[in-house]
Amino acid sequence: MANKITQKTLNDLEFNAVLNSIKEYCISDLGRAMVLEINPISRNLELKDELYQVHEYLSSMLSENKIPNHYFDEITNEIHILGIEDSFLEGKSFQKISSISSNINNLILFFKKFKEYYPTLFFQSENLEYTKFIIASIDKIISPFGEVLDDASDSLKMIRKDINSVRGKIGSSFTKSLNHYASLGYLDDIRESVVENQRVLAVQAMYRRKIKGSILGNSKTGSIVYIAPEATLQYSRELQNLQYEEKEEITVILKQLTNTIRPYQELLQKYQDYLCHLDVLGAKAKYAHHIKACLPEIVREQKIYLKDAFHPILLEENQRKEIPTIPQTLELNKNQQIIVISGPNAGGKSITLKTIGLLQVMLQSGILIPVHEKSEVSLFDNILTDIGDNQSIENQLSTYSYRLKNMRNFLRKCNHNTLFLIDEFGTGSDPELGGALAEIFLEEFYEMGAFGIITTHYANLKVLASELENVANANMQFDQRSLEPLFKLHIGQAGSSFTFEVAQKNGIPFRLINRAKKKVEKEKIRLDKTIAKLQQERNKLQRSNDLLEKEKSIARENSEELLEKKKKVDDKLNSFQELYDKNQKMLSYGRKSNELLNKFFQTKNKKHLISEFSKWAIMEQAKNEKNKQVKVKSLDKKSTKNSVNHLSKRETKEINRQARIQEKLRLEKLQKVEKEILIEVEKITEKKELVAKKIAREKSNYEFQINDKVRLFDGNAKGTIEKIEKKIATINYGFFTAKANLDQLELVQSSSGKSSVK
């Protein structure tokens, strides 16, 4: 893409105001300067790369994996000094270089770790060299406060040791002199002071000749003289010599360190450039977050589809004033190549036109735009604007002359890859003559295949827009009752200028308005009234449509809610039914098991029990198989009727294999259940046998007595023994008596009532 967007276009669209807003989010002076130099990017790949980087930075702000802090102190001067032979840097300069190197290393590691989240930013960081040598070299010599460390060299260490020793001597000698002269009463009440960073005695003026030392000053009144003691002066001179040696040694050390870092001059420049660029990316992302901007889809075919688009400058201004901003939705494509917007002044025509232009320029400069994420845009080689009167006193050009010069420029540059924006098209000259020339220009732009938006009040241009196939009329809606603009764009119908209505709203007397109406052609007034009436009807339809859409949305939500409730109820009913069926089956199984066990207890025939149980299990299996087949068939009819026929051989084979596995598992489970039941039966049998043996044992040991309650083994009737003769008992059943052998009797309750045998 050969970029031909001029500075005039950027000025017309107030692009600089956007840059000033972005600049405020920068964290460095270099970043702020770079923001103000932002221009549309000419190469498509470079532009997309920039947009993706801003988009990824914005994503990081909204995620847990935020990009690390990348604040830095400018090192432009330091990089320049490194390029000068025999020059050296100060300690604080090395500290800034170490900080920048550390930041770069952290960023390289961060983007490497999260390269899947930030692929474009990771790709950019790969061009940087990761090195710890710079940091290690500086940290060995320079402290975090920018001072040269004692261990930087052996000589420096010795010098500083001597300096500390001399300072100790100065302190002790001064204290000795202070105490001596104080005891003699030569000192003032303040005793001491500091002059030229040196401790001095505060001597009363009358005793100044009695103090050995150097006079360094006196008080304003002259009553106090400041004297450095002679003993202290000797040590001070020694200290000055040592400090000079220290300074010389530090210079040598700094020169050596500078020579060590000098080969990395280009790398440091690269580091700073990268951090500046990241600062600009961060500022763009923060600005995008503030205006709720996003990255729309960039398409190859020439089109602009902006959904819920905001003018960023107007949006920020309204946010400060806490008033709402109305978004616009607009589309330009091959079937809607040019849009002619008409309507009253102050209705929002110009701001709509500027919104489209400014958002396009922002996007082509690598800045995210405040639109709906489903918006689509393509990239244009050129964006031409004609906004405002642009009178030129210097060149002695009138508004119309300037606009004609602009039109000549448009005719020369327009093609199928151009977006043109013209505000108040055709104005500045006689309405009829200027309107006719504007028609010709519009036809030429149309024939060249250019995309564009124009605003106008000229009726002939509205008519022409309705006649050309790929040109659409549009209007800014206006409430005729309240005479207030609605700031909503409607495409498909021209708009009335509401000239007399707006005049009435602004307090122009009715008599003057009526006189003006008489001077205008009746047909013109009728046309304007017709357009206004159509627009009013359109507004009513739009309101009705909005209301219907709202009701439709509510109905859809209610319907979905009812369906959800019905599904929950059905699920509950199904679960209850399944539980009921399961319980019924378990009861049935229990009854059948109980029946088989009772038979076994009576007959004690194990083979018969196993045979009967196996027959019953096989019958239940057949029932289950039949039920499964019925369920599968019903499911096939409901949900898989069309898909079964399309199963591949492999899928059919897999289904059969799974069925065989399930059948095998089921048989194994059945055999396991049979074994468990047999084990339980054997346990119960053993228990019964033990009980029987116990009863027999108790019975053989028991001697029947008169008045014992008994019954026959094979009967249920209970009676009382009246008498016993030779193991024959006479039993009274109440209505009759009978005789029975004692071996045939079973004790129910003994005559004592203490025990009974069951």
What does this structure look like?
With 758 residues, the chain is of the alpha/beta class. It has six domains: 10-150 and 259-295, MutS, DNA mismatch repair protein, Chain A, domain 3 (Orthogonal Bundle), CATH 1.10.1420; 152-250, MutS, DNA mismatch repair protein, Chain A, domain 3 (Orthogonal Bundle), CATH 1.10.1420; 304-519, 3-Layer(aba) Sandwich (Rossmann fold); 520-584; 604-688, no CATH class; 702-758, SH3 type barrels. Helices cover 56% and strands 14% of the residues. The chain has 21 helices and 19 strands. It has helices at residues 7-12, 15-23, 29-36, 44-61, 76-82, 91-113, 119-125, 133-141, 154-183, 230-261, 265-290, 312-321, 349-363, 399-413, 431-447, 459-467, 499-505, 510-519, 522-603, 606-638, 649-701, and strands spanning 187-195, 198-204, 213-218, 224-229, 297-298, 304-309, 328-332, 338-342, 376-377, 382-386, 418-422, 451-455, 471-479, 484-491, 709-712, 719-725, 728-732, 737-741, 745-749. The strands form four sheets. The chain has a six-stranded mixed β-sheet with strand order 10-11-12-8-13-14, sandwiched between helices. A hairpin with a 2-residue loop joins β1 and β2. Mean pLDDT is 82; it is low at 391-396 and 640-647.
